[in-house]
Amino acid sequence: MSVAGPTVVLMTRSVQALAYVRPSALESTGSGRLLGLETAGGLTPRGAEAHPRFFSGFLASPQVAARGLLAVADVAAARYHQRIRPGSLDPVVTGNGDRLRFESFSGCGGVYARLDVLDEGLGGAETGHGTTNVDVNNPLREALSRMAGDDPLHLRVGPEEMAVSTLAGAVVEKKVPLPDRWLRGFAEAQVASARFDLRAELSGAEAVRFLRSLPRTQARGRGPLWVTPSGRTLRPTTRPGAGAVCLPGPDRLVALERVLRHATGLRVYGPVPDGAVATASAWEVTLPGMRLTLTLSPDPARGFSGEGGVLEALATEEAAQDAELVAVLLAWEPRIDLADLAAQAGLSVDRVRAALTRLGTAGRVGYDVADAAYFHRELPYDADRAERHNPRLVSARRLVAEGAVALDGELATVASGDRRYRVRESAGVLSCTCQWWADYRGRRGPCKHALAVRMVRRGATAGDALRAPSGVGPGAGAEGASAAGAAR
User: Fold this and answer.
1) Are residues 255 and 344 in the same domain?
2) Is residue 472 part of a domain?
3) Which segments show compositional bias classed as Low complexity (predicted)?
4) Residue 108 buriedness (CB in 10 A; 0-12 / 13-18 / 19+)
5) 255 and 324 together in one domain
6) DSSP, res 336
7) Which of 1, 239, 241, 482 could form a disulfide linkage to 16, CB 3.0–4.6 angstroms apart?
8) How much of the chain exceeds pLDDT 90, in percent?
9) What is the pLDDT of residue 194?
10) Up-side HSE of residue 253: CA atoms within 13 Å toward CB?
């Protein structure tokens, strides 16, 4: 399905065309200011729409909203590793009925940003349901940056009603690259976030002091920076201790500076440290009626795309079938209740979680660390595309197709080229004698040999591996739709 223009596939990169009725703008009116955010093609409960309308109402904290939107746009335009070729990637907005979520991904694929404008930030006004790109152009950025005072600000997400008759006329079109690693990274960031717990919480004043004290760069060759609770604040350290959270590349939090003067607190999320190995983490600044969250990949030099958290879910036909069922039950919920969804689907919670992971590869669900819950969105991407261009998954399917896996109880032998690798299963965890396992020991997902063994143990045959995977995205089978650019 193509909503906002053609998508041309170029190996593992496509060109995405985003069409807007007019540029977004900040205008002065007789009753204050109007922030008109124009939408490109998107998905709603009514189906695909060229220019959906999600919200029209006054914001409770105009300056905060303006600066939060700028922070999300900053991340969308940034490349934190090898700072070349700045991007111009428009954020995505999702209406969930009680909030608006603005999301973006950095050009390097290592930072995911989301601004949640909550019910109180919207003055209690309801939002529509659906997902689309919004135009954030340079003149709008400059106007938002200059915005001062708390004059009333009316936000409109989507075209004016009187503009509907002119939608077939001239449009503003943007063409942006859409590498597959962005799509994979979007799904991997969700999987990583679902494993986070709240590790620290600071007051607004302490949050400002701590964030402004961080080094602007990470010293080369010294390993990742960590932070540990120390009284009312956090203390940077080079070694993880009790309650430590990894801060890989402190300069990647620079977008938070946009909103620091309005911060009411800081919450830090991460997994339980695994020795001194770097991990992903999430940094949430709480604001009046809003939350701004940045999620960082474990290393500034690599994005989320190679973390391997989705591979297990992609490797099983059971998850594919479950995902098709679960997808029908999603209803644009801002918080997905796993137990309730499992009851509706007649599946276990673990199977529903695996299905949601698979749906995440098509951009159909995200994860909110503040709510500790998944949420529904609809990015019209093809999940098959994430599978076809995932190197380890492609290699594992090839090994199965070649009959390279021989099972022997808890052991398995995988023939790969001139070498033979031994894969052992213990308590449901697979280990391998290959170099990938020696380097990462499962921290970046299974190696291709273990993945092939998992597939065969679940009944996959050479014929299964040769068949194209089944899609779970809207318009599955199309090579990537172009309505929303959030996989960035």
Assistant:
1) no
2) no
3) 479-488
4) buried
5) no
6) B
7) 482
8) 47
9) 92
10) 26
